[in-house]
Amino acid sequence: MTHQLKDGGQVLSVGMLARVEGEGGMHIEIKDREVVSVKLNIFEPPRFYEGFLRGRKYTEPPDITARICGICPVAYQSASTEAMETICGVTTTAEIQLMRRLLYCGEWIESHSLHIFMLHAPDFLGFESVLEMAKDHADVVNMALRLKKAGNDVMELVGGRAIHPVNVKVGGFYRMPTLTQLEALRPDLERGLEDALAAVQFVSTFEFPEMEQGYNYVSLRHPDWYPLERGAEIVATSGARFPVAEIGAHVQEFQVEHSNALHARFDGEPYVVGPLARYSLNFDQLGPRCQEAALRAGLGQTCRNPFKSIIVRTVELAYAFEEALRIVDLWADGHSPSVPVPPRAGQGVGASEAPRGTIWHRYTIDADGVIEDAQIVPPTSQNQASIEADLHLAAQQWVDLDDHTLTHRCEAAIRNYDPCISCATHFLDLRVKRS
Amino acid sequence: MTDAAIETATRPKLAVWKFASCDGCQLSLLNCEDELLSIAEAVHIAYFPEATRAVVEGPYELSLVEGSITTPEDVRRIHEIRAQSGTLVTIGACATAGGIQALRNWADVEEYRSIVYAHPEYLSTLDTSTPIASHVDVDYELRGCPVDKGQLVEVLAAFLGGRKPRIPTYSVCVECKLKGNVCVPIASGQPCLGPVTQAGCGALCPSYGRGCYGCFGPQDSANTDSLTRQLTELGMNSDDIVRVYRTFNAGAPEFSAASEAVAVASSTVPAGGES
Q1: How close A27 gets to chain B, by Cα (Å)?
Q2: Is residue A390 one of the residues assigned to a domain?
Q3: How many whole angstroms separate alpha carbon A161 and alpha carbon A156?
Q4: What global pTM score does this model have?
Q5: Domain B3-161 classified CATH 3.40.50.700?
Q6: How many domains does the structure of chain A reveal?
Q7: A vs B: CB pairs below 8 A
Q8: Is B23's CB within 8 Å of A22's CB?
Q9: Interchain contact, A46 vs B125, CB within 8 Å
Q10: How many C-beta neighbours within 10 Å does residue A245 have?
Q11: Which candidate in B17, B18, B19, B23 is best for mutational testing of the A interface (most A CBs within 10 A)?
Q12: Order of strands, edge to edge, in the sheet holding B60-66?
């Protein structure tokens, strides 16, 4: 929609940003072909998780914080269990860690296939939604639904259900799946891996706007694996490298008037978490098939074009299938589902790689295990400043396009980040103002 | 009109709305991988921002509403939505009971704001999180945190068939018996809200060896007094019992009353006395 202002300027507005999780808008002001202001507005109402976690038991955050986000509950469950186990000085078993990683693979598969094919691909293929896309690309949509279902099946088996899994607890799981049950997943996982590898090539044929951004990428890193359910340290393209426990000293959260989600800076600068950061900082940890698929799709070992995040996300989708199969191969029955975690007073951090980027939790608990303080830093709030910077560059680069096309490009630039606004706090009213 | 346009015009229009929530219940619709394309043929998905940019004007024959009311703006918005909806169905614990964010109903919201936000003056929020039915008439409430996708499909099928949804209102205990589960509190001494919680999940938690934590809200004749006694016998203190009633359906009247009864009883017991 375009409004003419009395002073001869223009305001372009779109009710609400679609195909993102949660509610938000953007406000872009253009004067004499210069973009003067860009704001990503998040008006999703705050729910005060950090407030009401005070006074709850240390065993409750896996169930409670899962409810921050229906798309990535496992990310919250993993970060909170790790934080509590760290505080209480407990290390779980290798098998519990492996099963957590499998559950996390399920969430990556479900969330990535939702975003790649159902939320993001319609931008590149020129459709309003995946449902419309289904008419011309029935094969792709059917494959997407199959991939997504394979992820949900993993979550349902390991977690009990796909949204807000019930089987996760501080110390491990309530019950371990059996090898027979895991083996039953294998055919869909094998097919999923092949489909995902083929999809990497398919999405690489999309037309990508030229855009390079020099952001500081931040990701978890693990000596043995591409980071998912946890990492050993935090690494950044700036060269920063430190143990996860020290993240609070490097990340500062602050509030801006136009957003209900806190913004964040890393060592004083805006930064990016998510697939582009993970990939660029952990390419060496991908398996040979995923590396080869990525290179064949025209990616380098790092990727600086935010629009190509869809290719990177698809590489990660393939990786998640490969990992899930590896874990099924390794599994043997008979392992204890959990270890005891008696409470101990202290403070600790847990971090994991949510599909849309690094998430970390920091808790302080007392000797009885009652939570005294909680801090939860989800990926989208960390990415807000960079999303705004992308919007600025995109709007300036394409300032001469008509309002309809410009608006669409800007929306797509936001969707590059797979923003989860429910997570970030939790509203998008899209406006371009010209004068 | 073309055949396709006529066909679109005769299908009922579906809108999906969001208030304070996690998006999980509307995601349940997208998670119907086997049914999604058939659903999109049976109804005209007219407004569903999580899935599509296309926006078709109301009125809408069916509105699915996710989330609870927590801001002055949302109070206004839900009345607008009611006015343009034929049938309005709330989906999930936030929309039917206020969700986990209803914990603010027992707290000082000013303090919460200052814990989370450095500039609480930028926020516009109410002191309470309330279900949709506290503000407008609701035609059907679907329970769950999240809703069960099988039940969601049943609600859509019932709407299309012009009948009442076949959703049981008995307790999780019945589902456990049907599945042949071992009774969790009896066998392992873990607290279980199954006796007072509505079925619908398929007795998920007990099937995984943990007690039910009440995410489908109170069943139609919940005897919470009896459950509170049992939880006490299992060795739980009053703070822990208050916590188990105050999770995702804390604002449901039965659970809210049960938690307040426990809190009041414990605050009137003299120090050192029996609880």
Answers
A1: 17
A2: no
A3: 4
A4: 0.93
A5: yes
A6: 2
A7: 181
A8: yes
A9: yes
A10: 17
A11: B23
A12: B44-47, B13-18, B60-66, B85-91, B140-142
